[in-house]
Design brief:
Mean pLDDT: 94
Helix content: 25-40%
Strand content: 25-35%
CATH topology of one domain: Aminopeptidase
Oligomer: single chain
Number of strands: 8
Structural class: alpha+beta
Length: 182
């Protein structure tokens, strides 16, 4: 049996940190569960219950155990858990991995998503030597589009009816960042 992935702690710049999920992060899951959009695009439970929150944290641990991804909690400079960034390894055999992120509403506007995304993308390219990183962003999500582009991801195109979000299929922009920074 292969060993689980070791989800490291990463310094993410401007005092932000990334670390593995802990069961003490249930308040973060609770706040994310109350968001209008996060539960539609992530596996965050809505409505929140203690049991569903625990199951969410355990799913994050399961990604490392099953070697399918690196889930990180974004921690603000004051030590508060404020979001999530994950590196999924589903297509690693083909030289690519995908990233996803969210920040709870109370912490938005501080640049946390971009700082966390840049840290994980740099680590994935430098230490894990992943040649291609991908991101998927809904066209209406202008803040996330700006975040991806600020970090250096390049828009490749519109994937029509790409993903089920809530009750409908949605268009998604695909972004990529290559190992050489292109």
């Amino acid at each position: 049996m292969e060993q689980p992935l070791d989800v490291p702690e990463l310094a993410a710049g401007e005092g932000f940190m990334l670390r593995p999920w802990l069961m003490s992060d249930l308040d973060l899951v609770r706040e994310a569960s109350d968001d209008d959009h996060i539960p539609l695009i992530a596996t965050v439970p809505s409505p929140f219950s203690e049991a569903e929150g625990v199951a969410f944290v355990e799913r994050q641990w399961g990604r490392a155990t099953s070697r399918t991804g690196y889930p990180f909690v974004i921690v603000s400079p004051d030590g508060e858990p404020i979001g999530h960034v994950g590196l999924r390894l589903k297509d690693l055999g083909q030289g690519r991995a995908s990233l996803g992120y969210w920040v709870v509403k109370s912490a938005r506007g501080r640049g946390a998503a971009g700082i966390a995304l840049e840290a994980v993308a740099g680590w994935a390219r430098r230490d894990l030597r992943i040649p291609r990183l991908e991101l998927y962003v809904e066209p209406w999500n202008s803040a996330s589009l700006r975040t991806a582009e600020r970090v250096g991801f390049q828009r490749e195109g519109l994937m029509r009816s790409w993903q089920q979000v809530g009750a409908e299929r949605r268009d998604i922009f695909m972004y990529s960042l290559l190992a050489d920074g292109q």
